[in-house]
Amino acid sequence: MKINMKIATILPYKENYTNIGPGAVSLWVNDFLKYSKFKNKITIFGNTNNKNYLSKNYKNIKIDKINSRIFSSTNEYTNKLINHLNKEKYDLVELHNRPIMLNKIKNKINSKIIFYFHNDPLTMKGSKTVNERLLLLKNVDKVVFISEWVKKKFFENLDFKSHIKAEIIYHSINPLKKLNKKKKQIIFVGKLNYAKGYDLFCDAVNEVLDQYPDWTACSIGDEKRFLDYRIHTNHLNLALLPNKITLKRFEESEIAIVPSRWDEPFGRTALEASSRGCATIISKNGGLTEATDHAIVLKKLDANNLKTEIVKLIKNNKLRKKFQINGLKNVKHKLNINSKKIDFMRLSIFPFSYFNTNNKKLRILNIYNLGRKLNHRIYNLSMGKKFTNGFIRNEHDVLEISDRDFVKQNRLLSSFDFKDKFHGYLVKTAKNYNPDFIIFGHTDNVNEEILNDIRNINNRVVISQWNEDPLMDNFNGFNDNINKVKKFLPYVDNTYLTTDPNQTIFKSKNYNNINFLITPVDKGIECFNVFNLKPKNDFFYAISHGVNRGYLKKGKVDSRVFFINKLRNKIKDIKYDFYGFDKKEPIWGNEFYRALTNSKMALNLSRGTPTKHYSSNRIASLMGNGLLTFIDYKVCMDSFFDKNEIIFYKNIDDLADKIKYYSSNDKIRIKIAKNGKKKYFQRFNEVKTTKYIVDTSFGKNNNLYS
Predict the structure, then answer these.
(1) Which residue ranges form the domains of the chain, and what is each CATH number?
(2) For 655-665, how does the pLDDT look when each residue is reduced to its tens digit (9 = 90+)?
(3) How do residues 166-175 score in pLDDT, each as one tens digit?
(4) What is the pTM of this model?
(5) Among 200, 561, 579, 592, which is most buried by a count of CB atoms within 10 Å?
């Protein structure tokens, strides 16, 4: 694979990217740099007063001390960075641990962005509130957390606990090949302060060294506001040391202590100590326990309990060696593995630029209700069917899966594990087929766990969902329909709705991956030109009563029935043909087409209060087959069609008058119906619609609906 990606890595202001006392973010960046495929394409930006940088690709951003006293140093740092980024034209910007800088950078550059959280997001300017975190998700292509604990803090009080953009990449290290010779030494590394539990270390070690005079202790670190803790004569404070030397100290020490009081975002010290064969004792605060599976976790954080655990290790050589060898042999987070994960993530946000398939043609898994159990009576109304046709006509390969049919068949065989069977079937199919793109709609049997399992097989797969139900809050089934869409939002790359998102709750939720979709027409399905025929009836309207039920339900009426009954009284001389109420069953499949093609005109009246751009999928059947179609002004279809292509009515009296007029004026009726079909097929056919879906799902611009 040819790699041409230019990457800018931005460190926090005043992060010390040097060999002496480097910050945790600096160590993270430098460690992964060494193993990245992109190491020769990465420039690291930061601000430090020290020299002896960790790598040659570092650029120091100088800050005017006088200006920084008057204005924000972070603002000056950000502005200077923006100048560098725009000058050099980076493909990808990786911003570490300063959410307050994100919005300003996002609005001034034209690059993909990955944001890395190294600390608790709820304590940082720019990510404290729910709205700030939602905005951050909107503005980045990926957000990375250094531990599960940090990730949980980010999603605290949000409607969802994960997101498709979220990744966890831990601090990592290369394991040693063998256990080195050890000294009888107990080691502490970190800030020499109360938050890090340095006082607990000193107090516990003082008693231990009195009891075991052949043992020593050392501490590595500093603290600007250092408190004069009582230190044993056999306890040596080595101050700050380069990371390489610190690792050597771990290698020669028997026991390492990490007794943090504060919630450690991860616990790099614990990872380093355990990987170097130290018997490691840690507190359970924050993400510390995620660093290693082979450490003693303090049940109670005090000097007495710490002393007790140290003495156990000193007295029991076998126990001490067990922790040392297991820690060394079972390093939990390895640099070579997680470096590949980072590079893979970087490539995944440029799916078209770094494509792995032939000439950008996709393997597409299309999951929807094929209606086999319904004997395919919904084939002409099925959006999923039209998507398949469109994808194929755009030269992609498509594999169709009908979740409802699979589950029904397996439910007959077993009443217990049919859902588990579908889970296994779908995941194994994804493994065998290795799709580039998965799209699903109205599939109650797909769940978050299935999507996560598929992404674990191929993290680069792009997944989108679609929904054609009404989602406006003036509709009776509003909550159920909203929840069906909402539960997948954190797990999919894009969502496509036939309700204008701006008319739903999603407008206020800061989602930028929700798109509007008009039901497409398909040249193989909408294949009639009614304007060239001589229908017997003037006016057609059909109500369905649920795709699965498909027949009249006793006592079921809605506002559409009341509207049609009033309309009938106003157009008594018109030959109308209505279905789905007054004991007249709904019609499907070929019967639907027989009735439709036997009428000159049709009403497009959807469930709920007329809402901007929302229409049932019947609009494609009506206009696509050449009927003169009537629609309420409030649906605002004049955004796409003019009065020479579709008939807009203001109220029921206006509708009745226009039905009468066009029923007796065939010439103008035919002209408008023909224009309507032509426009619909020009703008919203299956080929253009599926290209729009693919383009927007993969991050490309497509202005089909502008």
Answers:
(1) 7-168 (3.40.50.11930), 183-332 (3.40.50.2000), 358-516 (3.40.50), 530-683 (3.40.50.2000)
(2) 999 999 999 99
(3) 999 999 999 9
(4) 0.78
(5) 200
